[in-house]
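ok trying again, last paste got cut off:
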Amino acid sequence: MKTSTGSSAPHRIVFLVPGDQSGLCGVTDYSLWLARAAAEQGHHILVLSIYSFTPRAFMADFSTIAGGTITTQLPSKPPATAEEIDRALATFEPDFVILQFSTPVFRTGKFVYPFLARICRVLRTYKVSLMVHETWISSDTRRSIRNYLLQKIRRFEILAAWRLLHPRSVYASNPTHLEQLKSAGLAPRHLPIFSNIPSAPRPHNPGAALNAMLETRGNSGFLPDTPYIVIFFGRIPATWDPAPVLRQIQQEAEHRAHNLCLISIGETGYSDQGWQRVVQTAKTTPTLRLGRSAPSEIITLLHAADCGVTHNSLSYWLKSGTCAAMVGCNLPTVFSETTIPADIPLPPHFATLGHTSLEWHQPAADRVIQISTPKKIWQLLEEDTFAITDSGHAQFQPPA
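nice, full thing came through this time. structure:
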């Protein structure tokens, strides 16, 4: 039997995913879509999670995927121990292991190395590919000696553990992460980003489709006359200040003679504090929290909205499945920053904060990113992974 890319099949492949203490994790969602694409190509997949995660609606038919199989294994008591992972791998006997790396899940107390090193010692006896979703760069952008030292320590810890792992290949989707990995002596390969919801054609009348969806969910009458609909999709950090972007979005709506309304859809993270801060800042502006929603409902909203807002910076937006979903639906996206970094692929239509009003941008074609699909990404990964011989390894130099 051959897969669509011509490699021998079926292979037995483990996706080692982070999961999350809250039961929610964008990296795990990404991994599940990729695992599903691999199973659809005839492979047998085990999704092994360090923490638990909340099953998504698209997982319901995993067992009936034509050609391959896919199963999930959650830890008996999160987080999974190295011994528990070792037993699961020995039972499944994988041909390949794909480690989906996210820094926070390996942090125990103040340090990353102890737990990560134990996992890497287990994995090193298998053929392992490393997919990097986060590095040692802190999400805290404040410049301080503490942050500088923390990033130096984290870099040393992560690279030391990865040397134990000795991965056969290393991947990242974000250009900033690729440069960080190259500076550390790695030779990472680029994997394009894909949306965390399936694509669908734009309906003939997006407004009518949205009204029907809101009525079904008991929210009929929410939309004001001539609405200017702004979407907050997914997690909103409690530390993110929405005031600057809301001021300029309000001005944008008034300039168009429309009535602003704000809608949050999808999971917001550990708590609703980020969204509640948006609501408090918006004051009298109508707001609606839709929460977890079916992919079809999310797509309906993204097609009907006027713009979406993200807390992600332009330097890191290419690691965000929610940003990819908005761009994939051709929704103009507003970033709450004032500058555009050089040499970063950009959305086709986006805004940054100006001095007093939003500044809209439509970059040249050679700067615009094309959003891919899980199937295409898996095909790239499959061709690359199965082409590596038993003796092949990613180039890894000691950290400077």
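cool. Residues 389-400 have pLDDT under 50 and may be disordered. The radius of gyration is 22 Å.
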